[in-house]
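Please, is this right?
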Amino acid sequence: MATPPPPLTRREAREHDSHDTRHDHDYDDSQDHDQAPQSTNEQHTTDADAEAAAAKRAKAELIGRTAAIFIMPLIMVGMMITGYLGTMHSPSANDMPVVVAGSDSKAADIKFALDGAEPDALDVDTVEDAHTAREMVYDREASAAVVIEGDKATLYTAGGAGVQQQTTVTGLVMPALQEEGLDVATEDIASLPDNDPSGLGAMFLMTAIVMAGYLPFSVLRSNSPELLKFKRIVPILGAWAAVIAGLVWTVVCPILDIVDVKDTVPVLGIAWLGVFAISCMQLFITRIVGALGVIVGIFFLMVLGMPSSNLSYPVYTMPAFYRFTHEILPMPAIGEALRSVLYFDGAGVTEHLLVLAIGAVVGLLLTKAYDFISHRRNPDPKPLDVNIPSLHGGRRPDSKVWRYISLIVFPLAMVTMMLTFMLGAMGSPTPKDMPVTVVGSSTEQAKDTIADLEKSMGKNMFDFTATSDKEEARAQVEDRDEVAALVLPTQKNAEFGLIANEAGNNSAYQVVNRIFDQVASAQDMELDVDNVAPLPDRDKNGVVVMYIAMGWILAGFMVVIVGANANPWSRPLKRMIPLTAVYAPFMSLVVALIAGPITGAVDGHFAQLWGAGIIAIFCIAMFAMVFERLIGMLAIIPVIGTLMFAGMPASNGAISEYMIPSFFTTLHDFLPMAAAVETIRSIIYFDSDVVTEHMQVLGLWGLVSLALVFLIDSIKPPRTEQDFGNLHLEREREQKKQARKQAKALEGPKSAQGSESSTGPAPSEGSESSQFGQSGQTVQSTIVEDDPNDYHRLSSRPTMAPTAGDGMSNRPAEAADRSESSDQQEWIPSTV
């Protein structure tokens, strides 16, 4: 066995270690020198792979943002038009509650007769006395009440519960009572006021309040997410609700005189609570799904809310599901509360206010619980992105004041226009210069009759024309040049005749039927109605044309608004025109499928509707592009104001053009919405007789708008990427503010520790308390101090705000910064 060498001295050991170190260093250098070419190649390969991956990500994002231009309108238009057409194109009564009072045997006989006449439409029950029956109608527990006294019957209804409901239930009950040989009288126990004869005041007030509740969240999350912090947003929502309450009262009371002054306090209260409750629920939805929360909100508030509201159509004519949603959704609660105050002296308002109050509390509690759980799971949450730098389309404002002003202007303008245009034009529909031909055996007889009619009715309701040619009058009614023709009695025909056109406009058809039936009754004669174009059962109220046109309008402007914000790269005309040329056929096909196969509102005419829709959507997109070039996302205000809020009353869709103020009647010949409605009506009901002239109106709007866009682009080329301005500085300031708050939170434990050490034994150097104190001091010295040099060092870094520009080449710099240092990330604070 070999003898081990003697141990080295300390000096020899140091020299040996030094020699080994030099040897190892020389060996590593030579090895690095030999592998240098290989390392360089690997580096080049890594860089190339990184560039390829970045290019692939940019391409995928470009494709995704372009797809969003199609997907977002598809979701919005699809759910709204499907929801409205599917439920309201052919409403029919289903289990409409009716009560009968009288002697036991007589009441039972009438109940049996009503059940036999309308077994599915009516839900008939008996009550003890007439007082109970009337109370149930007044409390809206029953749609009508029949009180039997001998051979006479009184039918009690409530116009304040809805004109449509009153008309529907009367039409169902009256024939059955008359068949029983009863002498029937009618009584309206809650008639509508003279300043709101159609009961639309509550409906438009309800719609405005609902819009005010969810509209701010459509841009708040993507533009100013710092406002979504719970402690900030709750008082903001309370103030916003107060502003809207004051606004709607100002419009409907002193300006339009729809609301009586005595109802000021309850209307203000309902408006405030309605806006606040919807905002609280929308706040929670935004927490869950982010910026897309507005789509979820619109689905529950508008798509489900309008059919459930019992204001547009009776809830008993909707599918049974909507009776359940009528009890829990905020839109029906707001509408019924307003109806209680405006038409029933506040009867039954409490239960609807309770629904809103519970909704507000639940929304706030769920939001607070979500924030608490999120903070527990992730005390340092991921920063919220800013996707929309500004609503006006330019650089993100450096001042928060201007940014917040634009956030207020957008929903405030929308609510104001909706109330003033829609309610102002459609709140009190009465005939004004409605063209009617009077047909006599001679022109002189017709003129004499016209003079008598104008003496009894006034000269403003109808614009009469005298003729003796019945066939010519009929042709004018068929061509919609005249609303109706009144045929005077002759020796051969001793009855009044009325030639009318229901498909031309249902509201005008109902008016001339009602008024001239009264004229015939005054002469103890019957009115023989000749309906030249009756509406089919699938479109009982003639609203299908309006909803299809609404689909075209929504699809047309959404492609521009969504495209400019989701993918600004698409804004130049060389890209936007081809994109819209693909988008228009796609969305027109969607609307045609919804109207036809999906909802069954239209039978046939698929190709004509698809082709006309392509032209309409493309032209509307060009019109929207003009304002988008000028004021960015705020273009929604003038575009929606022109196309929808002014276009709907002037469209001759839901209400006749001769039953609105003359200003809107004049607009009927010029606005795109009216041209779209008349085009669709002509295609569906009149063999496309006037399609050409109305398509010319749409085409003119498109061509003029396209020329204006060319002019604007020649002066100022369109931007192709978002300009987030000093967003990175905002984030740094917010970061410093958060750091100071964290440091103050740490000062509490440190102060408590210092107090304990002054009275008790000092901790050892290696103890946990000592280490915590040193850590707290480090945080205070490196983060809390607002060092100007450190601020300039942070702000001088090459930061880049998120963009969506040419090929998505500019990526958010903060994503890279976060991976380098969590202390230097650019961020907007979370909502927790």
Observations:
- The radius of gyration is 36 Å.
